[in-house]
Structures are given as C-alpha cells and as structure tokens.
Amino acid sequence: MEAVKVYNNSAVSAVKPDGREVILTGSGIGFSKRPGDTIDERKIEKTYYIQSELQTKFLQLLKDASPDAVRVAEDILEHARAGGLELKDQLLLSLIDHICFAIERYEQGIELPYLMLAETKMLYPREFKIGEWAVRQIEFRCGVRLPYYEAGYIALQLASASMSREMTYNTLMFTKGCMDIIRDTYSAELDPDSIDTVRLTTHLKFLAQRIFQRFQWTGDNMESLHEMLLKKHRKNKECIKRLKEYIQKEFDYKLNSQEEVYLLVHLSKIFYGEKEGDV
Length: 279
Prior knowledge:
Layout: E1 3-8, E2 11-15, E3 21-25, E4 46-48, H1 52-64, H2 67-82, H3 91-107, H4 117-123, H5 125-142, H6 150-162, H7 165-186, H8 195-212, H9 223-232, H10 234-251, H11 257-272
Antiparallel strand pairs: 1-2, 2-3, 3-4
Helix pairs in contact: 2-3, 2-5, 3-6, 4-5, 5-6, 6-7, 7-8, 7-10, 8-11, 9-10, 9-11
C-alpha cells in the first residue's frame, strides 16, 4: 500500500486494494514518509475504517494529538473490547479528544470534577473498572497522573458507545436525582459496595430506561402490600412521595403502585434490614 497522507510519525492514511480508505497507525509508520511512498506493512499496528462523514474530524485529531495520546486511546479501546464491550472504531475519536483535553486541563491546573461519579460507578461497574485502568494507562503512556474522577468520564464514554449518549446521560441524571432524594430523606449515606445498594441502583437504571421508552410495568395487584409498606415506616411514605413528585416533574411520568412497591422493598431492605419475605 502507498501512503495517501502522512499525519505524523505514527499515523498515515492509505487506500486498500478494495478501494476503501483506511487510517493506519504504528510506531514509526509515518517516519520520513511522503504521499506516494510505500508503507512498511510490518509497522502496521492498527487499521481503522472510519465513516466518511467522520474522517475529517479523525484526521484533524491525528494531526493535533500527540502520538502517545493516540496510542493510549488505542490501548483503552482494545482493553475494553477484550473485556467484552462491543465498540466501534468511531469511539477512538472521542477517546483521543477526551484524553487530549483532560491532559490540557491538568497542565493548566483546571479542575473539572465529575459530579455523577458514584452513580456511574454503580450503574456501569464494568465500564468504570476499564476507566480506572485507562487512567493508569494514561499515566504510563503520557506521564500524566490524572485525577481519579477521570475514570468516570471515560466510563461514560464507553457506556454511551453501547447505547445512545442521550439515554446514558438521562439514565445517570434520573438515578442521581433519585439517590439524592433517598439520601436526604433518610439522612444517610449509601454504601456503594453494598449488594443492597447495587440492587437499588440497578433497579433505578432499568426503571429509568422503561420510563424513557414510555413502557409502564404492570403485574399482579399489589395494593395491600403497597399500603402496608407505606404505613410500616414513616420515612418510606415520605421518600416515595418525593420520588413520585420528582419523576413526574422532571420526566413527565407517573409511577404506578406496582413500581412503587418494588422501590419500597429495596428501601426497606437497605434502611430497615427487611427481606422480601418479611415485608
């Protein structure tokens, strides 16, 4: 293959025999190369097929980003795929962009804490673990020790790649709003590593997705259980009232009694130590 464009020592574009333009990266693949020069295919480490409408942005990033930033973005993408995430090559663009911006902020002393860190860690544990690995890999490749919360930003990128960014962000906002109400009502912090807290946040995650898809859950009549749970603990009644008002106001959705029951079961187990068979 011949080089079509040379972006830096580690990235070139070329046209494969089937006519598709590709981006090739690898240590020294572009060193001393000019358009038309033959590419040493032994130096090809990664091959990317980028949709035509994204090529301009991708190529600009390759020109502006350091080779180390490109390399670590490739490392993260490869590590995430090895961890079972199904991700398209296009994610590389947002990873490179984010890493460059994060390093730039760090060097300028600008702090931009990720305000949904706890919720992201609980809702997307697999993506968050990869985010933690990514922060360590950025330090290894680029020599920059980014703040811990950057793991949350990277986890959000990974989660957004497997569903729409809007759905991911709205799910996080929904869960954070509900968790803030729960903490405030019961005047208690929730242990993010507790299995009961994980179950609650997982329930909120799937409740949010049903709400955004306008799919209301229905099941057996639970009115008697619903009333009993509300009367048994005063804080339960107050919390459900606040959650209903929040969800109705912010997301234009009215919880039914079945949906309330499942929330109440989780809350009773966390704050009153009750099992499902006890309520």
